[in-house]
Design brief:
There is one protein chain. About 10% of the residues are buried. This protein is about 30% helix and about 40% strand. It has 2 helices and 3 strands, in the order βββαα. The mean pLDDT is about 95. Strands 1-2-3 form a 3-stranded antiparallel beta sheet. The longest helix is centred in the last third of the chain and has 16 residues. Helix 1 crosses helix 2. It is an alpha+beta fold. Strand 2 and strand 3 form a beta hairpin.
């Protein structure tokens, strides 16, 4: 099975009650959902927390930087994909 499609969606979830910190007020939290589909139709979805302003940036990074370098690789090659993504993003911080 190979990776056929990778999609990312940024979502913003409001918190029930805003929380104030020393430098800001948090009224929502952002997450990115990533869905990977194999060429045989198996689908997996994961998510990550993206702070309060990073959802769109992270979604775009998955779409433009990560998806192209792992598209077509074996679904089970997790370590290999991790290494490829790590090397691809290393200089971006």
């Amino acid at each position: 099975m190979n990776i056929a499609t990778i999609s990312a969606t940024a979502i913003r979830i409001p918190v029930e009650r805003a929380t104030a910190f020393s430098t800001r007020v948090v009224g929502h939290r952002e997450y990115v959902l990533v869905t990977v589909e194999s060429d045989s139709g198996v689908v997996g979805t994961g998510y990550t927390y993206a702070g309060t302003t990073g959802g769109i940036w992270l979604r775009d990074a998955v779409t433009a930087l990560i998806a192209p370098v792992i598209h077509g690789r074996k679904v089970a090659a997790i370590d290999e994909c991790w290494e490829i993504v790590y090397r691809e993003l290393l200089l971006l911080g």
